[in-house]
Amino acid sequence: MQIQIPESWHEHLDAEISKPYFTQLAQFVDTERQHSTVFPPEEQVFSSLRITPYEKVNVLLLGQDPYHDDNQAHGLCFSVQPGIKPPPSLVNMYKELREDLGYSIPNHGYLVPWAEQGILMLNAVLTVRAHTPNSHKNHGWETFTDQVIRVVNAKSDPVVFVLWGGYAQKKVGLIDTSRHTIIQSAHPSPLSARNGFFGSRPFSKINEALKKAGKPEINWQLPNL
């Protein structure tokens, strides 16, 4: 696996990727790619870190596992590549965004414009075998992404952490709630969206927290492609 940690993250993560577990993780992913299709493509595994440099992280949105169907995953949680139909969780996010802020729903699921505004769109696991959800969990990715959460938590300026669903909310212990804002609710998946995601108004809450911290608010309106 090509370890393409972007320059702005080097000083924060170089010690982590030199640990034995990460070497084993990289070997596991390489072996998987030799025998199976793995998503996202190798050059996109660290897209979330590349698109959102460390110093620009104002929001951390935590997902769980990359999309596992063809041409979907490209390294940002909840986002799919251009031309790919938005998956159900993202459809529900768009519905809530429309209810929350009145924005129109775009004709795609490509969320890079959000990441470019300072939202680190991080999955807990960064790779997956095609058509086999959670196939790369418990191989080391969670240890690495927990460290990403820790180094974002260590930023001197306030960050908004967005934790949807029970899996993401288990990471609360990694976050200093006296300095940072946590926004949490049910997950937007069809299984749970009606149990507390719909009506939670996360998008306006994120902007309120950013405004309070003297940071630029997110323009959530995505242009059609």
Automatic annotation (TrEMBL):
GO terms for molecular function: uracil DNA N-glycosylase activity. Transmembrane segments: none annotated. One of its GO terms (biological process) is base-excision repair, AP site formation via deaminated base removal. CDD domains: UDG-F1-like. Its EC number is 3.2.2.27. The active site is at residue 65. InterPro entries: UDG_fam1 (IPR002043), Uracil-DNA_glycosylase-like (IPR005122), Uracil-DNA_glycosylase-like_sf (IPR036895). It comes from the Bacteria. It catalyses: Hydrolyzes single-stranded DNA or mismatched double-stranded DNA and polynucleotides, releasing free uracil. Residues 50-210 form the Uracil-DNA glycosylase-like domain. It is an enzyme of class 3 (hydrolase). One of its GO terms (cellular component) is cytoplasm. Keywords: Cytoplasm, DNA damage, DNA repair, Hydrolase. It is found in: Cytoplasm. The keyword Cytoplasm applies. Excises uracil residues from the DNA which can arise as a result of misincorporation of dUMP residues by DNA polymerase or due to deamination of cytosine. Belongs to the uracil-DNA glycosylase (UDG) superfamily. UNG family. This is Uracil-DNA glycosylase. It comes from Tengunoibacter tsumagoiensis.
